[in-house]
Design a protein that fits this description.
The chain has one domain: NAD(P)-binding Rossmann-like Domain (Rossmann fold), CATH 3.40.50. Helix content is 50%, strand content 14%. It is built from 10 helices and 7 strands. Helix 1 packs across helix 8, helix 3 runs parallel beside helix 4 and helix 7 packs antiparallel against helix 10. The N and C termini lie far apart (42 Å). 47% of the residues are buried.
Length: 279
């Protein structure tokens, strides 16, 4: 018996990284899932891998009509909506505030904040009518601690943490719980892609990234996508029925005990890029 037996969930950004793993684990735990993302081929591959318990829909979370269609697809396909996981997001360059552009700001906030808001807006009425539901947004340790990521990305993640608490204050009384998860350094292919690697080289680079991430927080290992997926399963499950308006830092102690300030973070990112390019 799975922890999510009988539940219907949406996972945005489900075509890679953390979102892909959340979708896979939700299915393994008994949920039926709508996996949403912008990349059609990766979404169809996920759909094939997970079988009839997962339905993919191409979605751009920055577009309200697309988000509304995603919610409608879940209800039309599976009959209800028990959990929305707002995972889709994008980063920003770690540059001086004097070099930030308005285009960067708009792009990051459109995906990371507007996308979360649209998801909540269209999921909340359904969950209120049901009298139950769980909305979970994947935030970031960068939204809790300054200096470990770019200014705009960090600000966007701080915004969704507080937005989630504000929405929890409004709708928890109708049975809808709203929480966030703040990952620390998680090993995904995004770092290899940033260095221009793909295929087998990108796979080899993950081992390098895992080694480097093992030294940045109190727990002496890198964070894995499975760590975030398991925390998300808990918040989606009935075991978390008394938890709302909270942020779960799944970071190995990065926020309270991490070693980095701004300059150290820049140097660490440069080392990641150098080591990844050398694989």
């Amino acid at each position: 018996m799975g922890q999510l037996d009988g539940k219907i969930a949406i996972v945005t950004g489900a075509t890679s990284g953390i979102g892909e793993r959340i979708a896979e684990v939700f299915v393994a735990e008994g949920a039926r899932v709508v996996g949403a993302g912008r990349r059609e081929s990766e979404g169809r591959a996920l759909e094939k891998r997970c079988g009839p318990s997962l339905s993919f829909i191409r979605t751009d979370v920055a577009d309200e009509a697309s988000v509304r269609a995603m919610i409608d697809h879940a209800v039309g396909r599976f009959g209800r909506l028990d959990c929305l996981v707002n995972n889709a997001g994008g980063g920003s360059p770690m540059v001086s505030i004097t070099d930030v552009t308005s285009e960067q700001f708009s792009s990051v906030f459109d995906t990371n904040v507007r996308g979360v808001m649209f998801g909540m807006k269209h999921a909340a009425p359904i969950m209120r009518t049901q009298g139950a539901g769980s909305i979970i947004t994947i935030a970031s340790a960068a939204g809790l601690r300054a200096g470990i990521s770019g200014h705009i990305y960090s600000a966007s993640k701080a915004a969704v943490i507080h937005l989630s608490r504000s929405v929890a204050c409004e709708i928890s009384g109708q049975g809808v719980r709203v929480n966030t998860i703040s990952p620390g350094g998680i090993v995904t292919g995004i770092f290899a892609k940033a260095a221009g690697l793909d295929g087998a080289k990108a796979d080899r680079a993950l081992a390098v990234i895992e080694e480097l991430f093992s030294s940045v927080q109190a727990v002496p290992r890198a964070g894995l996508t499975d760590d975030i997926a398991r925390a998300t399963v808990f918040l989606a499950s009935d075991a978390a029925s008394f938890i709302t308006g909270q942020d779960f830092a799944v970071d190995g102690g990065l926020v309270p005990f991490g070693k980095f300030g701004w300059q150290e973070s820049l140097e660490f990112r440069a080392e990641i890029a150098r080591r990844v390019r050398d694989v």
